[in-house]
Amino acid sequence: MADWQHLIALEKQHLWHPFTPMQDWCAPEHEPLMLVSGQGCVLRDQHGREYLDGNSSIWTNIHGHNHPTITAAITKQLRTVAHTSFLGFTHPPAIELAKQLVDLFPGEKLMRVFYSDNGSTAIEAGVRMALQYWKQNGAPQRDTVLSFDRAYHGDTLGAASLGGLPVFKGSGNDFGYNVVRVASMEALEQVDASRLAVVIIEPSIQGAAGMRVWPQGMLRQLKTWCHANDVLLMLDEVMTGFGRTGKMFACLHEDVVPDIIAMAKGITGGYLPLAATLTTERLFAGFLAPGNTFYYGHSYTANQAGCAAALASLQVFKDEHVLELLPQKVEQFSRALDVFRVHPAIKEVRQVGLIAGIEVCSAELVGPRICMAAREHGLLTRPVLNTLVLMPPLCATEDEMQRMVNALRLALDSVL
Ligand SMILES: *Cc1c(COP(=O)(O)O)cnc(C)c1O
User: Fold this and answer.
1) Domain boundaries defined on the chain
2) Distant-in-sequence, close-in-space partners of 391: CB < 8 Å, separation ≥ 6
3) What's the CATH superfamily of 33-63+321-415?
4) Which of 118, 139, 293, 359 has a 20 to 30 Å separation from 372 between CA atoms?
5) How many CB atoms lie within 10 A of CB 9?
6) Pocket mutation for ligand 1, best pick of 156, 239, 268, 352 (most atoms within 8 Å of C-beta)
């Protein structure tokens, strides 16, 4: 038996995968795809077959796989120390990274960095900060969080409570705090703003909802509304951060700096789990009085190797002029996507930066079958229902983006 066959037998005996119907997965005829190595936009499986990483390994990868700068930085850090506690201690990579993260925003507004280790915890930290802030600073009636229909803010119970997509709720409903959800800016008029602690939104584009694009200018309006009503504004840039939308952060397209921002997925270039919640000095100051401490955190807070990877990823942004090259790439990506804009089976193409949702016109659920078929054409990606997702790493060349589109089109035509 080949090594990989043995591994796959063990896999089916012992593993349980996220968001995966496990009966089909474990069926004898299903051979799981095992990804064994990667280079740039390319991933290689157990048979040596190559695939383009069409969704940046579930929206995380920024500069490609096995980038020498990031790999070297992690290796160097591991030879120094891999992880130390952030409870009662600090370390150089976390400090250097915090300084660089706050410098990514104009106006010296977001000055405080709270680390955690994934998007859901970055969101939960922000929500807890907002709720506790009002509770101990004279407005305990501000006990409600406002989120948007079809929002997705993560899978832990607290983050899932905010979500507006029933599929991610599992057996739970809302947990431990009050959430009101609205569909649009207009619906805010009906909300009692005096009860709100914080408004949370995925700026520019909702990811898990199927790449749904907000109207231009909406974020600015929302900021104005929050300001007028003294409600905190929190942005979930877990997917949109680190260049994905064409600027370092989506909020910078509308010159909005929020009161709280959560970042994760792309922060380490997609190499290690790390997350950060940035906030203002005003909010931070609300935790300084005796008894007002923020008693919250995780064992792997500010993991040293993760911070080293994040610093290296920011270095690559500079070394390779990533942001400067993005407008041209976004245009090339858009041109390649034109084939879907005129395709009779496509209802809509939604694009922001290097994020695309290609919605298939079909009463049946065909998205998963199309993405399965794309593997035959050398492309890996995952749909959201019937919306096909293409999200190339920012290092993708025009040729690679074109090949991603070609593979997806061949798959689409083979299934329909
Ligand atoms: C992925 C994602 C999250 C959750 O991040 P995890 O690291 O998976 O917990 C939250 N918000 C958005 C917008 C995301 O895309």
Assistant:
1) 33-63+321-415, 71-319
2) 54, 55, 56, 59, 244, 354, 355, 356, 381
3) Aspartate Aminotransferase, domain 1 (3.90.1150.10)
4) 118
5) 11
6) 239
Residue type, 343: H
Q: What is the pLDDT of residue 181?
A: 94
**Which 8-state DSSP code applies to residue 245?**
T
> Is the separation of the CB atoms in 307 and 315 below 8 Å?
no
CATH class of 71-319: alpha beta
Tell me: the pLDDT tens digits for 184-235?
Answer: 999 999 999 999 999 999 999 999 999 999 999 999 999 999 999 999 999 9
Ligand 1, from 153, 249, 268: best to mutate by most atoms within 8 Å of Cβ?
Answer: 153
Q: Is the pTM of this model over 0.85?
A: yes
User: What is the per-residue pLDDT across 65-77, written as a single tens digit (0 to 9) for each?
Assistant: 999 999 999 999 9
Q: Which residues line ligand 1 (CB under 6 A)?
A: 59, 118-120, 123, 152-155, 202, 207, 236, 238-239, 264-265
Cβ atoms 123, 334 nearer than 8 A: no
Residues with Cβ < 8 Å from 117, sequence gap 6 or more? 273, 274, 275, 298, 300, 301, 303, 306
Q: What are the C-alpha distances in Å from 133 to residues 279, 343, 383?
A: 12, 51, 38
What is d(CA 376, CA 372) in angstroms, rounded to the nearest whole number?
8
Token pair in block for residue 392: 């190339």
Rounded-to-integer distance, Cα 347 and Cα 343, Å: 8
pLDDT digits (tens, 9 = 90+) for 312-368: 999 999 999 999 999 999 999 999 999 999 999 999 999 999 999 999 999 999 999
Closest residue by Cα to residue 409 from 393, 390, 395, 385: 390
pLDDT at 156 exceeding the cut of 90 = no
Instruction: Write the residue with the smallest CA distance to atom 5 of ligand 1.
Output: 119
The predicted structure's pLDDT at residue 272: 98
What's the chain's Rg over C-alpha atoms?
A: 22
The per-residue pLDDT for 175 is: 60
| CA distance linking residue 38 with residue 42, whole number of Å | 6
Helix, strand, coil distribution of the chain in percent, nearest 5: 40, 20, 40
